[in-house]
Amino acid sequence: MELLRLLLLLVLAIGTSEGCQVQSSSSETTKDWWETAQFYQIYPRSFKDSDGDGIGDLNGITSKLEYLKDLGVTAAWLSPIYTSPMVDFGYDISDFFDIQPEYGTLEDFRALIKRAKELDLKIILDFVPNHSSNESVWFKKSVKREKGYEDYYVWHDGKINPETGAREPPTNWLQYFRGSAWEWNEERQQYYLHQFAVQQPDLNYRNPLVVDQMKRVLRYWLNEGVSGFRCDALPPLFEVLPDADGQFPDEVVSGATEDSEDRDYLTTTYIENQPETIDMVYQWRTVLDDHKRIYGGNSSVLLIETYSPAWFTMQFYGNRSTEGAHLPFNFNLITVMEQRGLNASNVQEAIDLWLNNMPAGRTANWVIGNHDKLRASTRYGKEHIDAMNILVMILPGVSVTYQGEELGMTDGKISWEQTVDPWGCNSNADIYEKYSRDPARTPFQWTSGANAGFSDGNSTWLPLADDYQTVNVEQELSDELSHLKIYKALVALRKSSKTLQNGSIKYQATADNVLIVQRSLTSSATIVGVINFGSAAVTVDLSQFDKSRTESLQLLIRSIDSTKTEGTRYDPKTLSLDPAEALVLTTE
């Protein structure tokens, strides 16, 4: 089966090496709200502080909803806001049914929902199903083996070393945050599995009580008015079943790194991407669909975080008989570039990997950053942030923006002493920068004033990025041309263009490192995106890309350093492009 998948991917790669053309629905197609949405990720701790403690909160988000409306955002997705000891800054949840006091109260959350509805904005919550905090009442009861909670988590006696007689962890499995994925609990006298921090024990989804409990969490927040969920860290939701003797298999050495504490040191065959994970997502989709059927209203959306290979990821969409996730997140524009670098052919490959594997009738999505990765401007280079925002806005389907990408925000500089991310803290001063996610989580830059307008307090939970005095909302709104204004123009075009909503796509990387993306729809204007990913000026002949292209094209949107003029028409046969220049043109 694996060989068949590899052969299929090879055929697809060969078939698209000269570019790809994909047809889509007609202009008469009626789409649900999420199918052409602009999702905007808010990292609450870093978005806006309303009470001066240096930590972002719900009232701060509420005060800035008009900003999101002005951007053209459809839905805001909030990273976790639930009660938490904050070991992993909200991803270690002690109470799935309440709000972390640093962020506010349930009443504050309800006020946020109310104001968002007034502005016709939707709120999406992070759903963290893989684990809880070890301070959760569920875990405490499980430690004590209280009735109904005995097997709420993945417990194991471990192994006895035949040479030393010492008890050892059940397997060699490694956690994401470095080191063993097993932790001994003295009170229960067993090991528990934690694929993330020691304080984040894995829930046992082979226990129907756990499955029912987490569905209860979904229903609770749906009843509070949320419009769906982004599901965190799906690959490790299930691990392989133990053998007849109750033992789990060891993973083998991968050869990817010599660092034996790094999760990549071993394969993840037995602890990620199990088939039961797919079925669980189908069950969650049923919860959302049942809620709409019973209570009416708009659809609630299910977004899935997975960095899994295409053959596994695409199953999340569902099959002929069962609906799955509305949108398994597409990280190809991140992962392919991380592996091979940013150039036109690699971007084409990233697009191919999604569009050529996506099941028919499903909706694509495009992501260039999030709270776990270096900021897009840092990874791609500041000169390419407009190009990448152009790309996610003209490709078919859904765009996803991490806060600050519309401004071109770059990573902050975080010293070892300032590091708070557990992934970084579990390493050391020599290698922490490889792991720490703090640089992408620095406070949002609203103004050039004190604390970048993020907080009125004396300090902020993470230091500001160095460029906040020039890269901020206030400055970019006043500039004649800015990343922010380009982003807003792109969203406005996407909302108004039937071609971008329903048109077919044709795209190709040229030999001189230019990517051309064309969206077409009968009786509507054609939209053409042209991006020079190279460091040299080039001249492109678009008639070689589209033999019918003879008429001039009008410039709609340009990257910040382009010297061209919006509204001017350009000859498609001799279109000049400066290094890193990106353009959006139209036949109208």
What does the oligomeric state look like here? Answer: single chain
- Rg over C-alpha atoms, rounded to the nearest angstrom: 24 Å
CATH architecture of the domain at 130-204 and 243-271: Alpha-Beta Complex
Instruction: Classify the secondary structure makeup into a structural class.
Output: alpha/beta
The CATH class of the domain at 130-204 and 243-271 turns out to be Alpha Beta
Molecular structure report:
It is a single chain. Helix content is 27%, strand content 16%. It is α/β, with parallel strands linked by helices and 588 residues long. It is built from 17 helices and 24 strands. Residues 1-17 have low confidence and may be disordered.
